[in-house]
Amino acid sequence: MADSTQNGPMQGGAGGGAVQFLMANKLDTAMWISRLFTVYCSALFVLPLLGLHEAASFYQRALLANALTSALRLHQRLPHFQLSRAFLAQALLEDSCHYLLYSLIFVNSYPVTMSIFPVLLFSLLHAATYTKKVLDARSLNSLPFLRNLLEKLNANQQNILKFIACNEIFLMPATVFMLFSGQGSLLQPFIYYRFLTLRYSSRRNPYCRTLFTELRIVVEHLIMKPSCPVFVRRLCLSSISFISRLAPTVA
């Protein structure tokens, strides 16, 4: 999940090595700063310490910062832009393009706490990875307390990615609920469905696809119990069949 950058300590003293590393990787450093800003804004939305009105503005700032990060990452992956169908198809295979679309879907919508968690956690994971590289460039033994926190975060990466995938899945019915409650637009569920199919087909991140499979197994196990009412079993089986038909084909 980490961006590819130069690694290892650099010469020039503790502080000088870190500065040289940051200057030598300007694009990665810009994404690091935007991710830290995303984490900051997301945290102030989830924990509205400055008031509910300010929390809504931090929600938009977090999504805009994430859109900027995703655009920079997409440029890094596909540096030569072309106005062609082939380039668009290639761009849609990139996770950064998925989350650029994700940010655009929710940036002007009614603030939904569920929608900010994927942005917050992805930014936190990527920022933590790059922070460790900055610390290595400064000194291999610098700031052990911070290094320990980063190691713990990295050790829980798989659980965090599963939690993100769970958010991505359950945001689909949330967008439908928002539509009927008057808090969403008519197009939002359809555009989000397209985002979800892209996440399901992701080459780099299989967690959305894995979570769909695990949820199906759990539901089928529960509804096959004798205590489950027949109409509930039929409803769940019909829903599973419908969702399976909507799933894209994965190569």
From TrEMBL:
Keywords: Membrane, Transmembrane, Transmembrane helix. The keyword Membrane applies. One of its GO terms (cellular component) is endoplasmic reticulum. Pfam families: TMEM33_Pom33 (PF03661). The chain crosses the membrane at residues 32-52, 99-125, 169-193. Its main location: membrane. It is a multi-pass membrane protein. GO terms for biological process: endoplasmic reticulum tubular network organization; membrane organization. It is found in: Membrane. Belongs to the PER33/POM33 family. This is TMM33 protein.
